[in-house]
Amino acid sequence: MRLRDYLKDRLPAFLTGAVTWLLVLIFLYTFHVSAEACVIVTGIALAGACIAESWEFLRKKPFYDNLLQQTEQLDRKYLLHEMIEEPAFFEGKVLCDVLRESDKSMCEQIAQYRRETEAFRDYIELWVHEIKLPVASLQLISHNDGNAKYAEQINRIDAYIENVLYYTRSETAEKDYIIKPVPLQRVFTDTALKHRTELQERNITLHTENLNVQVMTDSKWLGFIFGQLISNSIKYQASEITVSAEDTPEQTVLRFRDNGIGIPPHDLPSIFEKSFTGENGRTHAKSTGMGLYIVKKLCDKLGHSISAESEQGNYTEIRIVFGKNDLYAGNLSKM
Fold this sequence. Notes:
The protein has helices spanning 3-30, 35-73, 80-83, 90-145, 148-170, 184-194, 196-201, 219-235, 278-283, 291-302, 326-333, and strands at 180-183, 205-209, 214-217, 240-247, 251-258, 305-311, 315-323. By secondary structure, the protein is an alpha+beta fold.
């Protein structure tokens, strides 16, 4: 709290005091009080006012300075009332009480929201598990009947259902993953086998390079990420997919590249945003804009960085960087 700001805030009180003292002087002059006495009384009153205002400023300044400092430093502003001590002056006590009550109300609202969100998430997960049973039955029936068109549409339904499940779980992914050394080759192969029918029907060729490396991640979540990338390549008319890895002592860089229609330059910065469909999503395929958003969210939860590079009409490349640390080296040494 600056002195200038304090004096500016107190200006109405100072003006009121000055006008009042002027009236007092007029009253004293009316009763023929000597000028020397008026000057002495004015000096005493002015000195008392200065002392009172200085004391008021000095006892409030530490509290408000600390309040502003904590507000700037805290990432979670709602913890402010926990970081400040209740002052001795009345205004500060009122402010602390207001902060405490507002924080309590906010915590109650958040708790209610979390309970509702968790209940909804539980329902969605239950619904997904229930709906997967008839979908699996339809997949088996269509496979036995040899109807490729039905099988393709059922597989798409199953993929969308899985998207719902992973999106729901991505909010609390840290409760549902196990970080350990995972072979890239095995995870990608398992995922490709799940999409084998669609890849064969569209004559999409797969190439892998240097995937015989291990990265610290969760195999289930990584498999879902691979599945989303393969689905995008299929959706956007790729005929060739190349997956390679570059392993260094500091990190492992996974490159997922296809020769599909590519991404327009003006869309590229936004492809990981929620519900972003872009030009390709509107003209070439019906897109929800959620696939890459969920992939980005899972990578963030797992501690991986993800980026994209593309040339429209030529290629799209997704890069995922898996970091390494002492824990990684220790886990590998135990295997």
